[in-house]
Amino acid sequence: MSRIEKAMERAAQLRQGATAPPETQRVQKTLSDPEIRPYHTPPPADSTSEIIVPDSPFLINFKDPYSPIGEELRKLKAVLVKLTSGDTFQNTMLVTSAVQNEGKSLTALNLAISLAQEYDHTVLLIDADFRRPTIHSHLGIELKQGFADCLLDEAEIGDVIIPTGIGRLSVITAGREVPNPVELFASQKTESLIAEMKNRYHDRYIIFDTPPVLPFAEARTLAHLVDGVLFVVKEQLATQKNIKEAIDALKGCRMLGMVYNDAVINRHDEQYSNYQRYSRSESSNV
């Protein structure tokens, strides 16, 4: 009997429920037993699942991916993929800013969408800004159990992940209101949960949207638990002193780069004056 015939016979036996060889049984048990399986491999996006259709006009890569801003986001994505790929996949990052209203949440969300729209990347976006959670509102998702509930041992990570149907993007909302987010993020529970997620979802990007650095302490704590930090600066909002103080507060963390947001490309060209922009990410440390 030829090798092809033997292979076809073996496939037929497996389909009919025949007993597999011991080696195959061990592999099958490893893949099916959650106690044995060390990692979770996210499945491809289900084309039959309901697709979230957000109304937010600021989701550039969803509403108008071929716009000039969409192109800038693709440049940002390309730089980050290069920085996080290598012998070891650096899959966890957080997005923050020096002060409020610099566009960090929209940057995190647009970056996540841009990454997830590629076949090679699966993305989990987590709203870790318990002060002003916005990811759910931009996507039109009801705010139910989320990241806070997991940190409080009131939910499991797998139960709060929401598939969006937008490429391979899933999100975890902020969840319940937390009166003391600083203490919660500084707990051992947060450190162990992020480490668990990094290993469990080792083949997808995990992006955290966090509060700004100067008014709150959460980003300073989380920055030491992830692989890198993306820092957002809005033109004419944060001062140079603000930026320097925030960067100093993140010393010891890997700075992936800076996004210069809402920059006026050409002050004499009114075509761009009413649009939010994202400049290229600087690949060097800030």
Short note summarizing the structure:
The chain is of the alpha/beta class. It has helices at 3-15, 22-32, 60-63, 68-84, 104-116, 135-139, 147-151, 157-160, 181-185, 188-200, 218-222, 240-249; strands at residues 92-97, 123-127, 162-163, 169-172, 205-209, 228-234, 255-261.
Describe the structure in your own words.
The protein is an alpha/beta fold. The chain folds into two domains: 1-38, no CATH class; 51-272, 3-Layer(aba) Sandwich (Rossmann fold), CATH 3.40.50. Helices cover 37% and strands 13% of the residues. It contains twelve helices and seven strands. Strands 3-4-2-5-1-6-7 form a seven-stranded mixed sheet. Strand 6, helix 12 (240-249) and strand 7 form a beta-alpha-beta unit. Helix 4 packs across helix 5. The protein starts with a helix and ends in a 25-residue tail after the last strand. 35% of the residues are buried. The model is unreliable at 2-8, 14-49 and 267-286 (pLDDT under 50).
Name a few traits of the molecule.
disordered C terminus, 2 domains, 12 helices, Rossmann fold, 286 residues, seven-stranded mixed β-sheet, disordered N terminus, 7 strands, alpha/beta
